[in-house]
Design goal:
The chain contains 16 helices and 16 strands. It is α/β, with parallel strands linked by helices. The chain folds into two domains: 244 residues, Rossmann fold (3-Layer(aba) Sandwich); 209 residues, Rossmann fold (3-Layer(aba) Sandwich). The strands form two sheets. Strands 3-4-2-1-5-6-7-10-9-8 form a ten-stranded mixed β-sheet, sandwiched between helices. A six-stranded parallel β-sheet has the order 13-12-11-14-15-16, sandwiched between helices. Strand 5, helix 4 and strand 6 form a beta-alpha-beta unit. It is globular, with a radius of gyration of 22 Å. The mean pLDDT is 94. The structure holds adenosine-5'-diphosphate and 6-O-phosphono-alpha-D-glucopyranose. 6-O-phosphono-alpha-D-glucopyranose (G6P) binds next to helix 1. This is Trehalose-6-phosphate synthase. GO terms for molecular function: alpha,alpha-trehalose-phosphate synthase (UDP-forming) activity. Belongs to the glycosyltransferase 20 family.
């Protein structure tokens, strides 16, 4: 088996006991890498006065990790800047929040070149190189320029935006052109792939070849869909650990016979948290019978706190939570438990198990792994109900969930009401196919499908170079 060199900005190898709020990418990659010999390279999360290009290597939970520090200016311009003030909002359809600043793009290109310089000595000719996410789109081009000739794949963990949005980005074509240095470019859903292809054909004058490959900028690539999954059997096993059981019992004791609605997210404007709170408030306002027999637990772990819109969102959510609890709480009942701290993964699993409703309503999300974790944590004999936004990539796979429009508080309140009153037979009927797909379309299947497609795409390239 060839070695796999995985490269992403964020590197965290999560363990059951970890409190680190890692995000979907890190959760998936750690699980994917454990099976392959290989290295996971990325940013240490630390900044230094001047970039040195030094690598520190260590083993973490069965994975070889190689990390490099970034310069303070890199963190500002590349991570806080181009990645999280430009690409993240734009790709999540928030061009009202998108900052277009030339220094951000310069920092982005600089860090991608630095990543390439630093990781290049780790790459052997037989290695498969797999680059992840919006931070590192130009890395493939930089690696090719440094003589990497083997299979080179890219996976985008967030949505690909509609062509009409992407054209608002200065130097949009250069960003798309950079993707044509890879052999294979992967997306979570058909929707994101279609948007990418539409840009290539209509903005960049590309064509689809008879074998389905895309040709543009004088190069040919394969672009395809690989829906990511979770490490499902591991998540299910985690439910049996004493810590998970303790976490579940702790929540259950506090229920006092009430039912719990749960949401778990990074504190991010793409997750629809404000809209979710307002929908829950609408439920309390319009369905008096649920007052006092329900409460909502929202865990929202702070994320990207140096970026303005994240600070604003936090303040808005604090105010909204105060309004809801101020308006409806009683001496012995708090309708919204709003928590900003991180929990361990095994504890989270136990809390999912204790919740009758998983309320997961992003305004836009590449996939959303929490939806899959909620399902994996349910008791098959008495499962809870998943209420899921139609704008999460996961909605395309999880059709048996109650699918909602997160922009409509009425629709979300209706779905909550329906979930809270659904009989056991319907809950099981919906749960069984969801659980089946979470267990089978798991992270190992995602990794293997991508790596096999990468092998094939690189072979086709080599053959066409020879011809
Ligand atoms: P994103 O990648 O945008 O953060 P996902 O839903 O795809 O969203 O993935 C989030 C991942 O981070 C999930 O595996 C989830 O369990 C984990 N996570 C979210 N909040 C916490 C938390 N408070 N503590 C531990 N893990 C968390
Ligand atoms: C999403 C992104 C990842 C990112 C994660 C956490 O999952 O797709 O690339 O790592 O959020 O965000 P952070 O900025 O903390 O790495």
């Amino acid at each position: 088996m060839n070695r796999l060199i995985v490269i992403s900005n964020r590197v965290t190898v999560p363990k059951a006991r970890d409190k680190a709020q890692a995000g979907g990418l890190a959760m998936a990659l750690a699980a994917a890498l454990r099976e392959y010999r290989g290295v996971w390279f990325g940013w240490s999360g630390k900044s230094v006065p001047q970039f040195t290009g030094q690598i520190s290597m260590h083993q973490s939970n069965g994975v070889t990790v190689a990390l490099t520090d970034l310069e303070e200016a890199d963190v500002q311009e590349y991570y806080n800047g181009y990645a999280n003030k430009t690409l993240w909002p734009l790709f999540h359809y928030r061009n009202d929040l998108t900052a277009y600043d030339r220094s951000f793009n310069l920092g982005y290109q600089r860090v991608n070149a630095r990543f390439a310089d630093t990781v290049r000595p780790l790459i052997d000719p037989d290695d498969f190189v797999w680059v992840h996410d919006y931070h590192l789109i130009p890395l493939g081009r930089e690696l090719r320029q440094r003589g990497v000739k083997g299979p080179l794949g890219f996976f985008l963990h967030i949505p690909w935006p509609a062509r009409q949005l992407l054209v608002t980005l200065p130097r949009d074509r250069a960003l798309v052109e950079a993707l044509f240095s890879y052999d294979l470019v992967g997306f979570h859903t058909e929707e994101w792939l279609d948007a990418f292809v539409a840009y290539v054909l209509r903005e960049a004058g590309g064509t689809v070849l008879p074998d389905g490959r895309l040709s543009c900028f004088g190069r040919t690539i394969r672009a395809a869909v690989f829906p990511i999954g979770i490490d499902a059997s591991n998540f299910v096993d985690m439910l049996q650990t004493p810590d998970s059981i303790r976490a579940r019992e702790r929540v259950e004791r506090s229920l006092n016979g009430r039912r719990m609605i749960i949401g778990v997210d990074r504190l991010d404007y793409s997750k629809g948290l404000e809209e979710r709170f307002v929908a829950y408030e609408h439920l309390l306002a319009t369905r008096v019978r649920h007052r006092r027999d329900v409460f909502m637990l929202q865990i929202a772990t702070p994320s990207r706190g140096d970026v303005g819109p994240y600070q604003n969102l936090r303040a808005k959510l604090d105010a909204l939570a105060g309004r809801i609890n101020g308006g409806y709480a009683d001496v012995d009942w708090v309708p919204l438990r709003y928590v900003n701290r991180a929990y361990r993964r095994d504890e989270l699993a136990g809390m999912f198990r204790a919740a009758q409703v998983g309320f997961i309503t992003p305004l836009r999300d590449g996939m959303n792994l929490v939806a899959k974790e909620y399902i994996a944590a349910q008791d098959p004999e008495d499962p809870g109900v998943l209420v899921l936004s139609r704008f999460a990539g996961a909605a395309l796979q999880m059709k048996e969930a109650l699918i909602v429009n997160p922009f409509s508080r009425e629709e979300m309140a209706d779905a909550l009401d329906r979930a809270l009153t659904m009989d056991l037979a319907e809950r099981k009927r919906r749960f069984e196919p969801l659980m089946h797909s979470v267990m089978t379309e798991d992270v190992a299947a995602w990794r293997d499908n991508f790596v096999n497609a990468l092998r094939e795409a690189a072979e086709v390239r080599v053959q066409s170079e020879v011809a």
